[in-house]
Amino acid sequence: xxxxxxxxxxxxxxxxxxxxxxxxxxxxxxxxxxxxxxxxxxxxxxxxxxxxxxxxxxxxxxxxxxxxxxxxxxxxxxxxxxxxxxxxxxxxxxxxxxxxxxxxxxxxxxxxxxxxxxxxxxxxxxxxxxxxxxxxxxxxxxxxxxxxxxxxxxxxxxxxxxxxxxxxxxxxxxxxxxxxxxxxxxxxxxxxxxxxxxxxxxxxxxxxxxxxxxxxxxxxxxxxxxxxxxxxxxxxxxxxxxxxxxxxxxxxxxxxxxxxxxxxxxxxxxxxxxxxxxxxxxxxxxxxxxxxxxxxxxxxxxxxxxxxxxxxxxxxxxxxxxxxxxxxxxxxxxxxxxxxxxxxxxxxxxxxxxxxxxxxxxxxxxxxxxxxxxxxxxxxxxxxxxxxxxxxxxxxxxxxxxxxxxxxxxxxxxxxxxxxxxxxxxxxxxxxxxxxxxxxxxxxxxxxxxxxxxxxxxxxxxxxxxxxxxxxxxxxxxxxxxxxxxxxxxxxxxxxxxxxxxxx
Amino acid sequence: xxxxxxxxxxxxxxxxxxxxxxxxxxxxxxxxxxxxxxxxxxxxxxxxxxxxxxxxxxxxxxxxxxxxxxxxxxxxxxxxxxxxxxxxxxxxxxxxxxxxxxxxxxxxxxxxxxxxxxxxxxxxxxxxxxxxxxxxxxxxxxxxxxxxxxxxxxxxxxxxxxxxxxxxxxxxxxxxxxxxxxxxxxxxxxxxxxxxxxxxxxxxxxxxxxxxxxxxxxxxxxxxxxxxxxxxxxxxxxxxxxxxxxxxxxxxxxxxxxxxxxxxxxxxxxxxxxxxxxxxxxxxxxxxxxxxxxxxxxxxxxxxxxxxxxxxx
Lengths: 504, 313
Ligand SMILES: Nc1ncnc2c1ncn2[C@@H]1O[C@H](COP(=O)(O)OP(=O)(O)OP(=O)(O)O)[C@@H](O)[C@H]1O
Ligand SMILES: [Mg+2]
Hints:
The structure holds 2 protein chains of 2 kinds.
Chain A (H helix, E strand, L loop, with lengths): L4 E12 L2 E12 L3 E6 L5 H9 L6 E8 L2 E4 L5 H6 L2 E4 L11 H6 L12 H15 L14 H14 L4 E5 L7 H16 L3 E5 L3 H7 L2 E6 L2 E7 L5 H9 L16 E10 L8 E9 L2 E6 L6 H9 L6 E6 L2 E2 L5 H6 L2 E4 L3 H5 L6 H5 L10 E2 L2 E2 L1 H14 L16 H13 L5 E5 L7 H17 L2 E6 L2 H7 L2 E6 L2 E5 L4 H8 L5
Chain B lengths: L2 H6 L1 H26 L7 H17 L4 H23 L6 H23 L26 H5 L4 H19 L1 H11 L1 H6 L4 H27 L11 H11 L4 H25 L5 H20 L18
Bound molecules: adenosine-5'-triphosphate and magnesium ion.
């Protein structure tokens, strides 16, 4: 397999304030190779790649790229230099201008800025050829804002390929994709590596790491703790390397459901598009029960979540929490009725990024007597609350008085969990709660949900991840095209078919 | 004369276009700044600075086109101040903009007073005259409306086309729209967010200053204190009305010009019955109404007002 080395990262280090995000990390990459970069949330994976691509300037260390047969040092801190050296990066969060078309997003930055004319025809031809070759297709002349998440992901990769990337970095490319889309993506990647492309990809999904990579490198607390050929690895080995210990598995005790905590009666919502519409949904979630809603995203999950979190109103039918009908649902009535909400998009809907971690932890209960007296915030109480929660829920980052947006994705989720579970809600809405989380953090979410169930809460778990639903849910419903249907089977195959809308 | 008849006179339409001219410059300027994600409330002061600089340059003998160049440069300079404060330093765009307005206005008055300490009546310059295009200017109706305007009106119309062309047809325009929507998209493609925004704010401010220069070099031929009189603020509102589109910006400016021209004529008609202030108010009230209607569906540049810093998440 010994293909020539085309990239080496030499002892890269980066600190943010007191956080050591990367501590002398070195890494090699060979032509045609797929290297998986693993590590817990906040381990420093994105930071490392951001230094490679020039978004962050390393505190120390260097990068060398093979150019014309020799390893040449890369100018650090300039994306322009990385692009010119053939490095392309697909970021963890999309970097697309939604008001521009696919075509414009892709060619942005590759044309001379000060020219009266654009050579659109040539650019189009090149892009179409790349689409043909890589199998990644997206509508060229549609504004990116109108594309689905899967399509946007393809546009991101096309951007890199269009710049003739020889080294492609994919930072959690499948976090927002359905399993089918993810498989297609990796098939495309496999084709491209045959033509010599080298790929570094970051993922928390061990299944795809084991299936599609050649080599695995693991980061822990900013340090590289190991490297292993994929053929020698299995889930246990990797998990050990990542966490430094085996992850405990929480067993699900059998429990008999109690009184209904959430009841939807014949509820319909007509949203702006199909993805936020729901038609005539009726079901209950009981105390001591987890109801799993399986389905491919974009089939009405956002309408269901919107209803339960109070962001949407039913066009018909009624929503009751704990047996009381909610006549004017809004976020406040839902929170006071005892609904705890774990939103799907934790960055946008879960936190206020510019406010501190401590403030975000009390943001849903600013009217509580211990938080404020006569309109004035009680800073000490807020700080004490934050200290307690960061400890209990192991929220790691630059500290509780830092802006919440500085936390890594996994730690943002822990912040939200802390806020929600600490209020001992009667009903918990968990919408894609483990998306983008590492195994340890995902297990933690599962453990907390089971704990809440034991305490007597009802849980509505919306997820695309079948393993998660099968592992946690007492009852399973499938959502497809805005229609909910209860399943009696727990057979993967059959659930998969109903998710695709084919009633067995 | 009856209200409808006002609308049929060529002088009414000629006046509308004339009143609209500085606004066209101003709206286009504000539009470019905002497309890149920076609100420029310095506009009111930059108008004053452009008016003063253009006039002073001509008065010192630079010639009319030299005057325009001077105005544009001064505008770009104040744009640079605003851009440095708001783009790399990321200060509040509102505060910085208002500061630039105060600064540019008072500096202009100060320079004018220092240069001419003892004048009682402001000195006049030889301003832009109505173009007389053989044949066209004598056409009935169209002639006086379109072809007896000054070169600056034509320059304004040309700028509409130019700004539209740059935004819609060039790589630079694509980059400006991208940086106003999501700066990360530009950064990830190896372009500089800072340069694009600073450049756009400077170019937009230069256009605003030309709007000001129209006042002293075409509408009048001298500089007065308070002559900008809120025109800059009107432009800020018109950008929203125009939904950040150059064509609609022209339409908005013309609409406002027409309201204003109409108001003046109506005042002479029924001025005895209603207090004059009501008429002065009318264009503003109508533009607020137009704004309320148009702004509902307006799609703001997503990154407007949001500072961006390299190497931060
Ligand atoms: N721009 C920044 N400013 C301050 N702290 C930062 C910044 N970027 C990253 N960090 C911190 O550095 C650490 C590593 O973050 P990084 O995003 O690299 O983790 P990650 O391994 O990609 O995690 P995830 O799996 O959640 O994406 C975290 O503690 C994070 O809070
Ligand atoms: Mg990351």
